[in-house]
Amino acid sequence: xxxVFYFEDIHKxxxxxxxxxxxxHDTGNVKDAFPFTSSxxxxxxxxxxxxxxxxLVRITNNFKEPTFTDESDFTYSDYPLINNVVDNxxxxxxxxxxxxxxxxxxxxxxNNSELKPLHLYLFNYITLLEEKKGDKKExxxxxxxxxxxxxxxxxQISSLFSSKETNNLLTELIISSLPGLESKxxxxxxxEPKYSNTLPLLKELFIEDFLYLSKQKDYFxxxxxxxxxxxxxxxxxxxxxKSQKFGNESLQKLDSFYFTFDWETGIGGYxxxxxxxxxIKNNAHNLFVHIHCLSHxxxxxxxxRSDLKTYRAIIETLQELSSSEQLExxxxxxxxxxxxxxxxxxxxxxxxxxxxxxxxxxxALFSQLQEGMSKEVCLKYGKNIDNLGKSKFLKARGKHGYxxxxxxxxxxxxxxxxxxxxxxxxKEFFIELERRGMAFDQYSKKEAIQLLExxxxxxxxxxxxxxxxxxxxx
Length: 474
What we know:
Blueprint: H1 8-15, E1 18-19, E2 22-23, H2 44-47, H3 49-61, H4 80-87, H5 94-108, E3 109-110, E4 114-115, H6 135-151, H7 155-162, H8 169-177, H9 188-191, H10 200-213, H11 217-243, E5 257-258, E6 260-261, H12 272-283, H13 286-297, H14 311-319, H15 323-344, H16 358-371, H17 375-382, H18 384-389, E7 394-396, E8 402-406, H19 408-419, E9 424-425, H20 426-435, E10 438-439, H21 442-454, E11 458-460, E12 468-470
Parallel strand pairs: 5-10, 6-8
Antiparallel strand pairs: 1-2, 3-4, 7-8, 9-12, 11-12
Helix pairs in contact: 3-6, 4-5, 4-8, 10-11, 13-16, 13-17, 15-16, 19-20
């Protein structure tokens, strides 16, 4: 007997959420899609990158936050980490301790606050700050989201941040002076993913690129979060665009979004990058609705929280059933659309019947959910997309608002992972970028080639585009 759709539990939950003002919404027993909220727009990617990295690395290594204890009668620095190091060095007098403490403050911290990237293991010691109520919890949520989305128990990634190896004596002194980190143990609840990844292909590409960059040690220490940020932002863009297709999307490749470069001038409305992000802006308010719609469709009988499924993945599962089983599942979905509408006090279109395709029924459920949701909540939730990308991959372009944009350093980083270790033809280079969700129109391609030529990364065998190669960036 087929069991693709299961609405009993979500029905019980929503039955208890009827109010005189309408129906409160719930995603039921399904893993979360995003750490966004409608009450607070995220700023963690603008203000708290180092703290996010610290928590992400600890999750990767299954470590608790470090505890710094000071047993001496005198402190040499406001930074507990530095006091730990200084206390482990023997000097004849306190003056030398103070000199070392001052040196370490300049050496380890920038702007008197953030730890400088000196060694990957040190990121384990960047703690989360509670500057405002709820700040720490928000940072924990975003760190966990990134981990579940991209890192997810990858031992190669974990080994990068758990190794203490170094050939630098000062770094060795610092690491050896740090307090030990306590393991969180084998708590199954902690290990169980809290967020779903609806596009495993994106994670595969990320791991490939991330591990390649990790071989460039000095570069990687300073810049590895840039590629984490890029793939996190790409995932949100992909999720929204693919969801808008209600099952007619492909899960076998990333959709391409047109990017510009932040140094380009005279960006007109005819540019494809303007249109691409306009599509995101115009549909950002639908993100909240899609999450609830997909959550309804993803419910299962199991006790554990099920993964959020895409419309396409659900259709592919349905296509594996016999005709009679598909008809049974279709009737379940039709009955649920009607029952949900009854709970929400809404009318149902007469076109919701057995002649409808599954894609049409998904759209019908989406419409019923959207009708009963606060427009303000949906708008605020969708604005998190802007906030996630604008510090890095969006640029304000006058009347066009934000459009997708890359800085030079990020383009070169993404070029490096596209090319890897062997030169590739120019055409193949742009294909590799498209595999990662980036496309460039004729104007931006010209800018890209000009930059690569200036950096001496283009090898020309003739003036023909077919005879041009992009050399390894590293």
